Amino acid sequence: MKRVLFLYTELADYFLKCCEELANTAEVHIIRWAVNKEAPFEFEHSDQIKIYDKANYNFEQLKNLVTEINPDIIFCSGWVDKDYLKLTKPYFKKIPTVMSCDTHWRGDLKQYAAIFLSRFFLLNTFSQAWVPGEAQKKYALKLGFKERKIKKGFYSCDLKKFNAIYEKTKPEKEKNYPKRFLYVGRYYDFKGITDLWQAFIELQAETPNNWELWCLGTGSLEPVQHEKIKHFGFVQPKDLEPVLEKSGVFVLPSRFEPWGVVAHEYAAAGFPMILSKAVGAKETFLNEGKNGFSFQPKNIYELKTQLKNIINLSDKELLLMSENSHNLAQTISPQKWAAAVVEFYKEFNAK
d(Cα 279, Cα 299) in Å, to the nearest integer? Predict the structure, then answer.
């Protein structure tokens, strides 16, 4: 079995589910950052996956650990962690060294500087690149990676789990579609949660209706108080299902969201969606008017209009959107993710 090493930032449940799939055919090792205190996820994984907390090692100990693992392929989360770059560079050209990146091409001064410097710290460290979607691929190309050395599909949700939720909730939704918008994410300005609160409250005042807004998450922002807005706080992934069963439409109003695996999750679960145009995953999981609507980030009027568009739909129309979301979600899966790891290895060794 090949030994695969991930030099990772903050772990996520969906990433571990992909690693579980990979562990069927490879030995998986993950060096990771400490758990985010604002999103204290409790992770479960098989013994086939070995996880090491970076905080427990100094750099020399990390070097020794990587030497002991003796990886056949290394995946590194971008270039934000300089230790990770130093750990990867000695393996360049010896084994596949793959950079993951979820940053969009924006064309600002900082990105042009990265293009200039990439030959000194990226192209001499990484043999290939793995990105979520087209906007990130554009950036990787500008950084100097050849198109044949870039793959898309770096992020995948736990498709089996959310597909099962879709199948379980479909019969009840066919009887009476839940009139509840759902937000799942941190309570920060960049997530656009205050824009959603404002748009929803204004809409309730202008056009009173029976829809509610349920919000799951924590952060620096104080939850707004309104009779039709319910706050659940932080909810562990294993405890999500009862909330999802009673919710109808997913809203992600982010002002900044490089990808947003959560959009994949709720598409798979059969949620019509309202996504801001800042959400990278919109390119794959939102078909405008077919399974939801989009709006310009920070534009309260547009967001309110799209909330109203959903409210005006019949149950039959919402169910059709639900089915369309579910079908779109099948394009990316942990199985395809694991297969891509193998392809990176084969392509590097076929040169």
Answer: 14
In Å, what is the CA distance from 174 to each residue of 146, 212, 213, 297, 310?
A: 48, 19, 21, 32, 17
Contact in structure between 31 and 8 (CB atoms under 8 Å): yes
Cβ atoms of 199 and 307 within 8 Å: the answer is yes
What is the arithmetic mean of pLDDT over 124-140?
Answer: 96
35 pLDDT above the threshold of 80: no
Q: Are residues 80 and 185 both part of a single domain?
A: no
Same domain, yes or no: 259 and 174: yes
pLDDT in tens, 209-241: 999 999 999 999 999 999 999 999 999 888 888
Pairwise CA distance, residues 311 & 7, whole Å: 44
- Domain residue limits at 198: 159-331
Against a cut of 0.85, is the pTM above it?
A: yes
**Do 85 and 222 share a domain, yes or no?**
no
Number of other residues whose CB lies within 10 A of the CB of residue 140: 27
In the chain, the amino acid numbered 262 is: V
Q: Are 228 and 321 in the same domain?
A: yes
Query: Is the predicted pLDDT of residue 38 greater than 70, yes or no?
Result: no
In degrees and rounded to multiples of 5, residue 177 shows phi and psi of -70, 130
Q: What is the CATH number of the domain that holds 73?
A: 3.40.50.2000
Provide the domain count of the chain.
Answer: 2
Question: Are 150 and 163 in a shared domain?
Answer: no
Q: Which residue has the tokens 């969906």?
A: 14
d(Cα 176, Cα 171) in Å, to the nearest integer? 9
Determine the Cα–Cα distance for residues 41 and 34; give it in Å rounded to an integer: 11
Q: Residue 37: how many CB atoms within 10 A of its CB?
A: 7
Q: Which residues pair with 257 in a beta bridge?
A: 279
Identity at 326, one-letter amino acid code: H
